[in-house]
Amino acid sequence: MQHVTMTPPTCLKADPTLRATLLDYYLQCATGQALSAWLHDLGQDPKGTIEEKRARVRASTKYLSMPAEQFPDQTISYLSVYESDHLSDMCEALSIDDSGGKDLKWRRIMREVAVREGWLPRIDAVSQETLTLEKVLPFIDWHLIPRRGKYEQDFYDGFLEEMEEVFGHDYVHEQLPIAFGSTLKIDFHIGHPQREGVGIEFKMPANNSDLQRALGQMDQYKTRYGAQLLVVLFPDWLQKSHVTLFLDQLREKNIAAITKWPVCTGPQMPEAHQKLLPGNLS
Are residues 169 and 248 in the same domain? Predict the structure, then answer.
């Protein structure tokens, strides 16, 4: 599989029930001060009772009618203020699992948004018996990262949690040897452990030497996985030229790669982090 640029699916469609449920929750949880700030941002009168402010926000916000392409970004911005208990309540309002930590619930809510608005296929439509890179790629591309880590291992737990929810505990394996008796292990194997499956290797290189060592490993992974191999690159410590060179060399080896940045939850999203949604597949 060669490097391609993913674009938003053509089947995107606003889900009015989902949007109304989320907006109702935001409005019910918001304090009078928060509602005033919200109204100020909307260019509306921030004065009045809480009920008057809620009604004015509801009448002025574009949250219910905004294009599906913009809705996830706005939802992430809204979710950024909530702690774990609030996210549990929101999960309950959406009739989804409310167990686990804050990050897991946050990802679960955003995945529900993605499924219901057409970014992701229905999870029950993904057959574990026939998992391919094409099938798992949208979920990996969507996997959201709330904060940076210093090492690639810092991203393992969140990824493992989400992939197990999507594909099932028995079909997601961490640090699986690429061959019997081999000391070289793939970071993640999605699929039956004794079958072909999809190999996913995280890379957070610090310099060009790390990149060259990673490329050498890729040849061995490629022998095991063929076209079902994906590199997830965290380019924090690299110069832009090194990132370009690394992706070019992966392309020459016919290996797919995704570049991952953290989600920015504030009102101003740095340009470098705007590849939050599907579209960051190199």
Answer: yes
